[in-house]
Write a structure and sequence with these properties.
108 residues, alpha+beta, Pdz3 Domain, 4 helices, 6 strands, 29% strand
Length: 108
């Protein structure tokens, strides 16, 4: 997912793969979510780390390793700050359910 040096994510290589998405108020209350928005997955790269972890198109990422994700910039910053290697946990909304997935990044 990340290589050493400048960060080049799938978002940058293949066009727009994610967009900001609002979380319905009822869902935010039910799951006690701090943020009102997250990052909607528009495309999952086949056989990529997200695909292998079970991330689906239309999932809305709301946390990355315990850090709130409200925008694509938030997600890219967290990925860049983290560097390559090691697993991380995504917390996301799938339809009306809260899911947690462990993702194992790979070099780009």
């Amino acid at each position: 997912m990340l290589a050493s040096g400048p960060v080049e994510t799938s978002y940058q290589r293949q066009g727009r793969l994610a967009a900001r998405e609002g979380a319905p108020r009822a869902i935010r209350r039910e799951h006690d979510l701090a943020a009102s928005t997250g990052v909607k997955v528009l495309k999952v790269e086949a056989n990529g780390p997200a695909d292998r972890a079970g991330v689906l198109t239309s999932d809305v990422i709301i946390e990355f390793d315990g850090h709130t994700v409200e925008t694509v910039d938030d997600l890219q910053r967290l990925l860049a700050d983290r560097g390559a290697g090691g697993r991380f946990r995504l917390r996301l909304l799938r339809v009306f359910r809260l899911e947690e997935l462990d993702v194992e990044p790979t070099a780009a």
